[in-house]
């Protein structure tokens, strides 16, 4: 154990978040651990985001807060990478400026890291669903019991410092993925030298940049800590988020991240994809068929005709990924009603379910949020 102070670098990629930026900076200014820097990356915002951040940095004093102004809007990946390049801390966090954070965020991380270095630390969060007026209509808490993996090694069965090998670690990652805790970057602290030494950066890709970054970040880590504490509050703003917009290649992007996850599990477990544990295939089957149903909803909303949708669905059923996962879909009533028709090839039923989902999403977002959690 050491009493050495650990410096944290906090990167906030900021684009048109004037409504939230001051609250985010005040959350960070109120941290009960003093050794940190905050780097706001103004991604050429068209509102007052950059000016408000500059004003806060000037008024706060002490040099903890700085602002990088990018001359062009290049997206969240490049903004985060710019912040990473400027960071001087031992650990780095990539937080979103339209969310908010517990004042004990950094002190909780320090309490773990001062005992032993970890390459990545993950913590719990809440997902706050907002209505059209910006008020919280529903909250989901995401947290798992604590776990610690130190000395992860090449061998599948050989344990590290705590007796846990890569298979145990792979099982833990599956649990995190099922709880939607693996892909986000904002519920994690990363050892900065580890990212730099391995050349890990946010990729230039739409919609799945977060999960692809984390798959790369977790690939070769030697140590990992999972904390049960809830330290982050994610505002899910529905249609304001990218998830509410039409993406022509939405399904292909989702399949890219599914394949990447499965391939990583194969490497860790030293198994072929068809030999993977049932829990892995069930987790990915759930994600795949939710994504497939979401693609139908998006197509309907975009104005695509029924025949056009059926044509690409019939093509999708020939995809090896569909064949791999169709017999591994599990879940409760929501799964049986909304997603099982797709796995069984009942396209008319799946299409009607998608139309129903679209109506519920649009007019009853709180009901839809609850429905998703009871899948």
Description:
The chain is an alpha/beta fold and 375 residues long. The protein has two domains: 235 residues, Alpha-Beta Complex (Spore Coat Polysaccharide Biosynthesis Protein SpsA, Chain A), CATH 3.90.550; 127 residues, no CATH class. The protein contains 15 helices and ten strands. Strands 1, 2, 3, 4, 5, 6, 7, 8, 9 and 10 form a ten-stranded mixed β-sheet that branches. Strand 6 and strand 7 form a beta hairpin. Helix 5 packs parallel to helix 9 and helix 8 packs antiparallel against helix 9. The longest helix is centred in the last third of the chain and has 25 residues. The chain is globular and about 60 Å long. The termini are far apart. The relative contact order is 0.10. About 1% of the residues have low confidence. This is Glycosyltransferase family 2 protein. InterPro entries: Glyco_trans_2-like (IPR001173), Nucleotide-diphossugar_trans (IPR029044). It holds the Pfam family Glycos_transf_2. One of its GO terms (molecular function) is hexosyltransferase activity.
